[in-house]
Amino acid sequence: xxxxxxxxxxxxxxxxxxxxxxxxxxxxxxxxxxxxxxxxxxxxxxxxxxxxxxxxxxxxxxxxxxxxxxxxxxxxxxxxxxxxxxxxxxxxxxxxxxxxxxxxxxxxxxxxxxxxxxxxxxxxxxxxxxxxxxxxxxxxxxxxxxxxxxxxxxxxxxxxxxxxxxxxxxxxxxxxxxxxxxxxxxxxxxxxxxxxxxxxxxxxxxxxxxxxxxxxxxxxxxxxxxxxxxxxxxxxxxxxxxxxxxxxxxxxxxxxxxxxxxxxxxxxxxxxxxxxxxxxxxxxxxxxxxxxxxxxxxxxxxxxxxxxxxxxxxxxxxxxxxxxxxxxxxxxxxxxxxxxxxxxxxxxxxxxxxxxxxxxxxxxxxxxxxxxxxxxxxxxxxxxxxxxxxxxxxxxxxxxxxxxxxxxxxxxxxxxxxxxxxxxxxxxxxxxxxxxxxxxxxxxxxxxxxxxxxxxxxxxxxxxxxxxxxxxxxxxxxxxxxxxxxxxxxxxxxxxxxxxxxxxxxxxxxx
Length: 511
Ligand code: ADP
Ligand code: XUL
What we know:
Elements: E1 3-9, E2 13-22, E3 25-35, H1 36-39, E4 59-60, H2 62-77, E5 86-93, E6 98-101, E7 118-119, H3 127-137, H4 140-147, H5 156-166, H6 168-173, E8 176-179, H7 180-189, H8 197-200, E9 206-207, E10 212-213, H9 215-221, E11 238-241, H10 244-250, E12 256-258, E13 261-262, H11 263-270, E14 279-283, E15 287-293, E16 305-308, E17 314-320, H12 324-333, H13 338-347, E18 356-358, E19 375-377, H14 384-401, E20 412-416, H15 423-433, E21 436-438, H16 445-461, H17 468-472, H18 488-510
Parallel strand pairs: 1-5, 5-12, 5-13, 14-20, 20-21
Antiparallel strand pairs: 1-2, 2-3, 4-7, 6-8, 9-10, 11-12, 14-15, 15-17, 16-17, 18-19
Helix pairs in contact: 3-5, 3-9, 11-16, 12-14, 13-14, 14-15, 14-18, 15-18
The protein binds adenosine-5'-diphosphate and D-xylulose.
The site of adenosine-5'-diphosphate has 14 residues, from helix 12.
């Protein structure tokens, strides 16, 4: 029976998952992850990011991602699986990051870079460029109505504009600008790959209504940009075959390669969210809350985004930068393990007796905070358990507050990402939202979603289409017995506390 490989190039590492599909049965038969810092120390990344003196700058290394792909495909080749059954491969990647390629061969790694580094989603250095693009297209509302988002610092368009302004010669020498997703897909097919609407909508350049580049934004971003952008194809497109390079190097078969997408659109599939009404919260390097949308409803206050969904519809999403790395920092400050972190979290009563913090260790995306600084209210920094409780409560209240624009009455939450293993955190989530929270067997929903997308597209391309409900059945379903239920009285308390949190957030932003 056919095998499908999904790859996920996230901020901190690369994962591969192979699923075996036999009629209605789907099974994960291979799963492997590597962390960039540990597996490829020669690049000197910390949590997958190159150190930089300016906290608003965040770049990573496309050469490191290339090496990671080699390592992962070598593991797949050595897995003992019958790879003659490998039918298709797709991928997921951290969104918004950009890779700059010059003239020359695209048929085998390494590709000729015109910029050694790739700015990634944690970068917030492009406020001036956001303002320039906004003005040139006629304002934030116009830009959001077309592209799904106001101008956003980490989005690819403002990042491209900054590169054009700071390194005009290298910009001119660039022939193709890829997203992380289309870059890695290019390495697999040995030719420049297209982007899909799921990841293309994270650029401030794509018209959501037509899935084409919106020329007003393209022209406002940088001269000559239209010729440097990849084409946009539907997410379910077979974009080529695994190139001879991979066959020669690792003995892999000539499997079909399906367009890659962003990690959040892939997670939508990997958590089975192919219908409106349920939301997922991913507690990964970034914390995100998202759900499928049949019609694009843009966030009026500019905090959320509308992206394309791999199903051909839309998804609403709000993104927080101070996610797992903030929790890790708190854990490390008090010298705890994750188990002790959970016990500390449970030590104080819900609501923390009014002790609160605003969790901005690093610059924040939602709400926009340009310089990291944690603000404490009636909270002593030396009190570990109270600070841990304040952090997790703040993260969940911020998520509840800044997802209201999606217009979903949240009654069920599917939790995914590395920290979704932590049930003490999920209890706070359930209580703040007043929602039932479920976990998944496969923690990396983005990678699973990529494998399922490979399956769906390959079946469609071979004339045996499978409806999305059936694609996700079995694997991308929550574990019923994992339910974390909300306590009604706690939820009532958190509703009030969330209003207090909103006031404190607003007054902090005003100063
Ligand atoms: P990415 O978004 O890069 O794919 P993951 O979804 O793999 O990240 O999540 C990785 C993060 O999960 C780590 O940075 C770590 O902080 C967090 N994590 C792992 N286990 C736990 C746990 N038991 N409790 C809380 N956080 C955890
Ligand atoms: C989404 C975002 C992050 C990255 C990294 O807008 O910035 O979630 O995709 O995971």
